[in-house]
């Protein structure tokens, strides 16, 4: 799948409403029909209907210390999860470097995990299609979600296969900002826009270089594999901040 066609933000907004059976690829990233917001699983705010997503008291781009001081349902949930640090999560992500898709653009363990998860059933219930529709679909957000699951903190990282919906979840929970913190989920628009509807790709921030660039760990990039990359901040739409307590 290495190369993807470029789609305008307006076109992407239209395509986002199409059922999951279609692959909506853009350069270096993944755009798929939005997964359903489940009405079950109250322990995970990501599984609440949009109108019921908790509005968390978190100012954008706060430090970890100030974030912990803010009362929020997600922080309460985090207290019941393994005490994982950003460094530990990034170590899991970096262990996947070199994992590559097959000639059809799928076949990774990230696809297999997502296809067997409750999330895919929720997506199908909302958008139609079938599980096999994910088999060769763009997978940058499946990779992010898989890493959160492996770290044991998926409820505070979020899980999705559609970058726009994942970004909106962070925004709705007030866990969204402009600071490149290690372990943040970074959302890209290759055209340099600032709207979540223009998002093309997602990964994890490893380090802010302080020169207008960041080091990232991303899936479905380059030649269709997990890679460590250097990206210009000019292509970043924003950052989602998981809860790290380690």
TrEMBL record:
List the signal peptide residues.
1-38
Q: Which Pfam families match?
A: CHAP
| Statement: the UniProt record of this protein carries the keyword Oxidoreductase | no
**This protein's UniProt keywords:** Signal
Species whose genome carries this gene:
Planobispora takensis
UniProt name for this protein: Peptidase C51 domain-containing protein
The superkingdom listed in its UniProt entry is Bacteria
Q: Which residues form the Peptidase C51 domain?
A: 136-220
